[in-house]
Amino acid sequence: MERRSFLFGLGGVAAASIAAADTLDKKADLLEEHMSQALDDGRLVATPWACDAGHPISEKAPVPGPPYLMGDDPRLPGMPARPTLVDFFNLRFRSRHLLQSANLALKNGVDEKIVLACLLHDISVKCLIRTDHGYWASQLVEPYVDPEIAWAIRYHQALRFYPDPAVHYEYPKAYRLFFGEEYKPAPYIEAAYQAARAHKWYMSARLITLNDLYAFDPSVTVTLDPFIDIIGRHFRQPPEGLGFDGSPVAHMWRSIIWPANFL
User: Fold this and answer.
1) Secondary structure letter of residue 65 according to DSSP
2) For residue 9, what are the contacts with CB-CB under 8 A and spacing of at least 6?
3) Rounded to whole angstroms, how far apart are CA atoms 253 and 229?
4) Residue 101 — left, alpha, or beta (φ > 0 → left; ψ -120 to 50 → alpha)?
């Protein structure tokens, strides 16, 4: 999907949300989210409050009972008692962009760990929080994957703003249109880029950006099936289920299971 054409075709509300973001990094995150959402199959997922800080959510769950929802949201598919990563893909994430990115990485012959990183790199954007999505996604999976995978997911967020001619990664032309010729990433993004550039796993994160940039294609349909074995080999599924294993990030997975809980 070509970003320039996509931006011109955005509806008024979506375009306004990008324009209203208070930093250019957030505008970039919103643009990526709208492009990914455009590929989705229309499954209704309640928006967590964290994604709309300062903007009240008016939508109410269409069910009788107390005014505030706690527990299962009837608008969403039910989750099993011990949910796996595959369950989250089937019942919450539903992101064609993630599948397309991982499929492109698979076709390009990259290491399986990086294929999994491509599959997971934007999970926060779809179902938890947009801003600093690389950090959030990395934290979500860090207890369950090789450290290189979590590191690559974290730092892909910064690397997308910086070209690397040696591997034919260019600064996206659309970013000049969206953010202006004078845009400069925030200092913390620059610092993250410099740290990543000097790190032994630099290319792991760079490969995510290389397989991310051209992975918006509405004509391509990819299922999770080719990645089931890769998940099995490289994702340590807790037997208690994601969200219920007592890990430091269990609450984040529960927030995806019950995104509309009032408290």
Assistant:
1) S
2) none
3) 22
4) alpha
**CA 123 to chain centroid:** 3
Distance CA 137, CA 175 (A): 22
Residue 99 and residue 212 in contact, taking contact as beta carbons nearer than 8 Å? no
Name residue, tokens 């953010």: 179
**Six-digit token string for 225:** 């099936």
Q: What confidence tens digit (pLDDT) does each residue in 219-261 have?
A: 778 899 999 999 999 999 999 999 999 999 999 999 999 988 8
- Distance between CA atoms of 124 and 37, rounded to whole angstroms? 13
The H or E element containing residue 225 is none
Residue 164, SS3?
strand
Evaluate whether 174 touches 8 at the Cβ level (below 8 Å).
no
Q: How far apart are alpha carbons 116 and 47 in whole angstroms?
A: 25
Lookup: tokens for 203: 């290319």
Q: Which tokens in the block code for residue 7?
A: 């931006």
19-46 pLDDT, tens digit each: 666 677 766 666 666 566 555 544 333 4
Q: Is 126:136 a contact under the CB 8 Å cutoff?
A: no
Helical pair 12-20 and 24-38, crossing angle rounded to 10 deg: 150
